[in-house]
Amino acid sequence: MTLDALKSWLEERGIDEVEGIIPDMAGSARGKIVPARKFCREEGMRLPETLFAQTVTGEYPEEDILHEAENDMLLRPDVATVRQVPWATDPTALVIHDCYHHDGSPVTVAPRYILKQVLDLYEARGWRPVVAPEVEFFLVQANTDADYPLKPPVGRSGRPETVRQSYSIDAVNEFDPLFEQMYDYCEVQEIEIDTLIHESGAAQMEVNFLHTDPLSAADQVFLFKRTVREVALRHSIYATFMAKPMANEPGSAMHLHGSVVDAKTGRNLFANEDGSDSDLFLSHIAGLQEYVPSAMPIFAPYVNSYRRIVRHDAAPINLHWGYDNRTVGLRVPISGAENRRVENRVIGADVNPYLAMAASLACGYLGMVEGLKPTEAMRGSAYDDAVTLPPGLRQALDLLSASSALREVLGDLFVDLYVALKEREYDTFFQVISPWEREFLLLNV
Predict the structure, then answer these.
(1) Rounded to whole angstroms, how far apart are CA atoms 242 and 351?
(2) N or C: which terminal CB in the chain sees fewer CB atoms within 10 Å?
(3) Is 409 within 8 Å of 362 (Cβ atoms)?
(4) Closest CA to 177 of 150, 139, 137
(5) Short-list 154, 244, 230, CA closest to 189
(6) pLDDT in tens, 379-422
(7) How far apart, in whole angstroms, are the C-alpha atoms of residue 244 and residue 397?
(8) How far is CA 76 from CA 31, 95, 107, 190, 413, in A?
(9) Would you give the distance in Å from CA 293 to the centre of its chain?
(10) pTM over 0.90, yes/no
(11) Nearest Cα to 73, choosing from 27, 125, 112, 35?
C-alpha cells in the first residue's frame, strides 16, 4: 500500500483520527493522535529518541547512553500496518511507524528495527524464518491498590475460579462476552488468532497465533496485548501479561514456535528429504542452547519474570531439548518434514514481542552460521536436572553485557542502552520493602 492508497483507505472509512504508534522497550504503544487530514499531509511525526531510554517506572538511566539529549526522531508510517481501532468512539485508525534520524538513517535501538536487522541476516543467507507465538495471560479482578494480591475475577456463574481448570471449555465460557468481543476486535484489526484455550492457572488463558513471518507476528502480538487489556477493562476486570502475577499460580509465557525455510522455494530447511532432522535444524537448537542464557534479560525482562522459572510448574529451568517433551526449554513438536520446528518455551508473556522474536532468532542464527552441535535430546523429565538458566535479572544482565556474539547481531548501542535501562529498573525495585520482609523480619530479627 502506498501513501496515496493509505489516504484513500482512510477516506473510504470516514476516519477522523489516526493513532501513529511505535512499540517502546517494554512493548507498550507510544505515539501521537492526529487528525486524519493532517496525518496524510505531514511527511512524518516526531518523537524524542529518549522514549526508548525510559524505564517501565518512567525513569531514565543515570548514564546518557544515547548522547543525544532530546533530539527528535522522524516517524514514518508502515502503511501495511494500518488498521481500524474498533473501540474508538469516533472512526479512528492506527498505523505502526518506524523510526529514523533526520539524515534518513534508522534509529538502531528501536525494537522494530532490531527485529528487521535480524531478519536481514537470514535474508542474506537465503533463509526466511517462520514463527507462531502462543501468548498466555491472566484475567484478574480489578485491583487499584498494589499492596493487595491479585485475585481471579468473577465469571457468569457469580463465582471466581478456586481450582486449576486446564483446557476446560466451561471455564472459558465463564467469560464468553469478553472473548466474543476480543475476537471481534481482533478480526477488525486483522490479528490472526488460531485457538483459545484455558491454561492451568485460575482464569489463565492462552491464545495461539497462525504461523507467519516474524515482523507480522510481532505486530500482531503488540496489538493483541493492547486489545485484550482494552476489552477486559470494558468488562470491569484486568488482563495481565505479567510473567508471575499470583504466588500460587503458574506463570505466563509467550512460547515461540520457529522454523526456517528456503527463501526461494519455501522448503523447510529444518528437515531432510527423508524427514529426518537437518544439520541446520540441530545447529539452530544448539545456538539456542548456547546463547539463550545471555539473551535472558530480553526473554525475562523484569525481576518478576524470574519468579516464573520454577521447577515442576510448567516453565523450563534449563535448556535441554527433546521431542514432544514439555519439561524442556526447547521442545520439538511431533510433525512432518514440512512442519519441523522448535518451540522456545523460555520466553515470558511480559516481553516486548519484537525484541523477544529478534533475540530467539538471533540465537538460532548464530548456531546455524557457527555450525554448533546440540546436546543429546532429553528423554524423561528435564526438571530432574539442574537449573542452568540465570537465577535473576542481575546475573542475566551481566551475561548479556558480556556477550560479544549478541552484541554483534543486536548492536552495541542497543545492548548498552537496554542493560542500563534494566539496571535502573532493578535498582528501583530494591527501593521497595515487600510485605514478606515486614511479615517475617520486622519482629523476628
Answers:
(1) 9
(2) C
(3) yes
(4) 139
(5) 230
(6) 999 999 999 999 999 999 999 999 999 999 999 999 999 999 99
(7) 20
(8) 12, 10, 12, 21, 22
(9) 17
(10) yes
(11) 112
